[in-house]
């Protein structure tokens, strides 16, 4: 049983980590680049693009610090869900669990403008999500116009045609991140018959084309023993995967709470990843596991914000609340939304030491806090 003083010390440490996370976050972004450079050493064309990108990133960090000095919290990461549409129907899909209105999804002009504003504010990464982003025929044209921004493109891989891969080879600032659940059985069970074989085919094609790409693995209690292992990481690394996103399953679908991993499983996953960093050079992100290093959940503008396919600004894809729409207001104003500020100011809501997604787990508390503070809409 922890003594009072120990709890006090721990709370103090978490508070300090919560408040002093920005330099650490920027240092992590710097580390992503140095790892990227190490990976790109054998690819001169990529090395050149990466060094140019890094130049832009340093300016972006400065811009965020400047705006921070003016009291505006600008996160380095924007998660942009460009569509709810998808060519698959995966079990437990968080996008389908959302009730994003039937309002028309963002137009190409909207998306172009949002990215332009994000660049002006000093955001470094725009994660392209969905639904399946590649169902949008205009997407690659739009991102090609923003060579200073880095776009991790989260895709189920099924629409990565040879023609698309050819196009992506010329866009070094766009990094395909294909979704996989484990081996053939795990992947096809959740995503549908034949998906695993198709994804592996695309992975081999990108590796053969000397592209930089990654994999996104949704970690749940069913596939944990398979994916949270050095063997699994090694098998993908050997096939050219150079970025690993381990995303913990969030039970947005009622009745799937048993699929959430436990705090001890999370610790095991983080230690497997730490060991893999030494043996298999790549970029590793554990979501939300890594957030503890930054004093807790990075949503609500601390590390990232989410824009849903209708333009609603949300604290996080797993937190179905929105109180403003970037179609009606600038991104800068949206970042000052009472909803985001209320959540940031109540950082105990962002404490994830008990595992799982804190905002999802505390959604009723969030609701009680924002009731009367701002007029908001639930999107899930
Ligand atoms: S590919 Fe993604 S968005 Fe599409 S159904 Fe599967 S989990 Fe949902």
What's this entry about, in short?
The chain is an alpha/beta fold and 380 residues long.
Describe, in plain words, how this protein is organized in 3D.
- The protein is of the alpha/beta class.
- The chain has one domain (17-378): TIM Barrel.
- It has 16 helices and eleven strands.
- It has helices spanning 4-19, 21-40, 44-69, 94-97, 108-120, 139-144, 162-169, 184-191, 195-208, 224-227, 230-237, 263-279, 331-334, 338-345, 358-361, 363-370; strands spanning 77-81, 125-129, 151-155, 174-180, 214-219, 243-248, 283-287, 304-307, 313-314, 321-322, 377-378.
- Helix 2 packs antiparallel against helix 3.
- The two termini are 38 Å apart.
- Iron/sulfur cluster binds at residues 86, 88-90, 93, 95-96, 130-132, 156.
List keywords for this structure.
5-stranded parallel beta sheet; TIM Barrel; single chain
Order of helices and strands: HHHEHHEHEHEHHEHHEHEEEEHHHHE
Could you estimate the helical fraction of the residues in percent?
40-55%
| Shape estimate | globular
Strand content: 5-15%
């Amino acid at each position: 049983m922890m003594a009072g003083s120990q709890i006090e010390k721990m709370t103090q440490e978490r508070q300090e980590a919560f408040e002093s996370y920005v330099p650490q976050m920027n240092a992590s972004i710097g580390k992503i680049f140095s790892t990227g450079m190490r990976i790109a050493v054998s690819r001169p064309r990529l090395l050149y693009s990466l060094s140019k990108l890094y130049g832009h990133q340093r300016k972006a960090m400065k811009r965020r610090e400047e705006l921070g000095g003016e009291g505006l919290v600008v996160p380095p990461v924007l998660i942009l869900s460009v569509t709810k549409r998808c060519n698959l129907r995966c079990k437990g899909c968080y996008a389908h669990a959302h009730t994003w209105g039937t309002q028309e999804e963002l137009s190409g002009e909207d998306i172009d403008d949002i990215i332009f504003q994000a660049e002006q504010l000093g955001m470094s990464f725009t994660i392209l999500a969905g639904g399946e982003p590649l169902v949008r025929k205009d997407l690659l044209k739009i991102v090609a116009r923003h060579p200073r921004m880095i776009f991790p493109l989260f895709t189920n891989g099924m629409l990565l045609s040879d023609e698309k891969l050819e196009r992506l080879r010329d866009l070094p600032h766009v990094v395909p991140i294909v979704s996989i659940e484990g081996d053939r059985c795990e992947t096809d069970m959740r995503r549908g018959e034949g998906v695993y074989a198709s994804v592996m085919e695309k992975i081999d094609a990108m590796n053969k084309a000397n592209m930089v790409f990654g994999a996104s693995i949704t970690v749940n209690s069913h596939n944990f023993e398979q994916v949270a292992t050095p063997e699994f990481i090694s098998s993908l690394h050997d096939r050219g995967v150079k970025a690993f996103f381990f995303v913990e399953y969030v039970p947005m679908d009622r009745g799937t709470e048993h699929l959430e991993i436990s705090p001890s499983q999370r610790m095991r996953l983080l230690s497997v990843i730490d060991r893999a960093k030494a043996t298999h050079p790549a970029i590793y992100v554990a979501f939300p596991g890594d957030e503890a290093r930054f004093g807790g959940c990075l949503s609500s503008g601390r590390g990232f914000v989410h824009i849903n396919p209708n333009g609603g600004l949300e604290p996080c894809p797993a937190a179905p609340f929105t109180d403003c729409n970037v179609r009606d207001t600038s991104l800068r104003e949206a970042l000052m939304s009472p909803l985001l500020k209320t959540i940031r100011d109540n950082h105990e809501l962002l404490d994830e030491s008990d595992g799982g997604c804190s905002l999802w787990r505390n959604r009723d508390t969030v609701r009680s806090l924002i009731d009367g503070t701002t007029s908001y809409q639930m999107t899930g």
